[in-house]
Known about the structure:
Layout: H1 3-8, E1 15-17, E2 23-25, E3 31-36, E4 53-55, E5 58-60, E6 64-67, E7 72-74, H2 84-90, E8 95-113, E9 119-128, E10 134-141, E11 151-156, E12 162-172, E13 180-186, H3 190-201, E14 210-217, H4 227-236, E15 240-244, H5 249-262, E16 271-276, H6 284-295, E17 301-308, E18 314-317, E19 320-323, E20 328-332, E21 338-341, E22 360-364, H7 365-371, H8 382-392, E23 397-407, H9 419-434, H10 439-455, H11 459-473, H12 484-494, H13 530-543, E24 551-553, H14 560-563, E25 568-572, E26 579-583, H15 586-621, H16 624-630
Parallel strand pairs: 13-14, 13-16, 14-15, 17-23, 24-25
Antiparallel strand pairs: 1-2, 3-12, 4-7, 5-6, 6-12, 7-11, 8-9, 8-10, 8-11, 8-12, 16-22, 17-22, 18-21, 19-20, 25-26
Amino acid sequence: MDKAEFAAIEPTGGVGTAADGSSVPERPAARQTAQRAxxxxxxxxxxxxxxxxxxxxxxxERTRVRLGRRSRIETDTYFGRFPASYWQRWTAVTEVAFVxxxxxxxxxxxxxxxxxxxxxxxxxxxxxSNGTPTTVTVxxxxxxxxxxxxxxxxxxxxxxxxxxxxxxxxxPAPKTLRPAAVVICTFNRAxxxxxxxxxxxxxxxxxxxxxxxYVIDQGxxxxxxxxxxxxxxxxxxxxxxxITQPNLGGAGGFTRGLYEVTGSARNPxxxxxxMDDDVLCEPEAVVRLNMxxxxxxxxxxxxxxxxxxxxxxxxHVGAEVADLQRLQAGxxxxxALADKSTLKKQQDIRVDAGYNGWWSCLIPSEVVDKVGxxxxxxxxxxxxxxxxxxxxxxxxxxxxxxAAVWHADFAWKDWDEWHRYxxxxxxxxxxxxxxxxxxxxxAKQLRTDLFRYLVSMQYxxxxxxxxxxxxxxxxxxxxxxxxxxxxxxxxxxxxxxxETIRHDANNVPGLRPADMFITPxxxxxxxxxxxxxxxxxxxxxWRGRLPAHPVAVPSSDAHWWHVSLFxxxxxxxxxxxxxxxxxxxxKRAVALLRRGMRALQALKQETPAVSLRYREAAPQLTSRxxxxxLYGR
Length: 633
């Protein structure tokens, strides 16, 4: 976008300087851009049909589209829709306008959908520039959308041609326009982080309301060594804040951003936008998150959705919740899209989220003042805990459709990894803080998981589960160092289990490629027979009455009831980058079983007392003073 195009967009007010040198919001313009109507994606990897669908002769660019005769475009797409239902439910906005610069002749229609996806035209106008480019504005009420529905634009031509540029949806300016502060947390992903930062810096509209961009670098492969980072740093100038610190995980990295923003006069009352370092960034997400947050009736956490990086048209989940008692996260809310192609289906029904992942998520400064800082959990469930704690304090989380980044597909990450320790341990801590955690029910659930890991020859996974339980029972004092000791220990100790190591599929130690033959799994046992099947598999594993020759098991067939039929299985890693070798080890299985019975018995008995200790320690753990100590401030 050149300077002329940038100037054509409504100014958002920005940030000025007070007499004492501190930053203060400038008076906003009468109307603000809530979201842009973009016509192409930020990368060739992304289908432009996620932004606008076309019929006829149409040339698309990022901010401009040219329609030939008898052609049509519609923004009834993932990024093209205006999520009217969410604006009516959470903000005081009652009217929205579609504004565009046009050159030529045609027709502009605004179309609404309802909660069932049915369409209706709500506004229409003929477009004619009479040979001189002009700006067209079409308004419509934001009403009749409480349970669902969206707005989109339909632009068509007849016998003439039409060019549309710098299109956007605008809303009346809120009384207060808070700037945004973007926080990117990174650990040894220097190239990815530099690319994410560059994507934002190269979009002036996305950065118009951004007061500061913080890069929290916790690795030893520093982002500052990259040429792309140095280029962006010279362009951003004082807007960029680069901080290095020891690795305190995602919790410690993102919290450092909260810590700096809420304690700085340069970002008064800012909306803090978290951004993962390894995403394919859609800079427009910052525009949409920030303006929506500025318009909510009460401060709310506003989250972006996650699209799959390997399958860019698919949305992870429209909104999610967690089952704290069962330690399950990422559960889709009823009626929310989950792992669906946005080219085939849009989210019309409005759904409410329990929390939002921190791949990209906005937290207003007022929320930090009200509920405190995140827990020093290092990694996993820090975002979930913060979302549920905020809701308990009257702060909702809104997962906003059409605001998104592309992130690595979760299904392509193997479950048997070191981070599973933090997933389990931190889930128990979160449940202890926000529910009356039933230790007996949880021990029963984890006992089943333990047995399944053992019969499946996943001894490292069984160890990971037990260490998570044991460390949870150690209590909140174990979080004193922010998780650095635990992160080092789990990686070191898991390495002692051979099946946790990934090998090239054509270079498996001790085996030739011809030694393994794919063995598909049978159907899932009936629920009423699961324990009987598990007991039978355990008995056969104990006796060693199993085929001795190695078999190859696809990732999709690596179920406990199938792998446990063998004593030597080469299982495809979920990442599809290699394989894991599982071998029966009776001695190791017995040792882990005995250790597991002790740990689970302790969990049943000690959960109430340990939960109370976590609740009592939470105010100190989430205090600014505790994080200052961890940051050495």
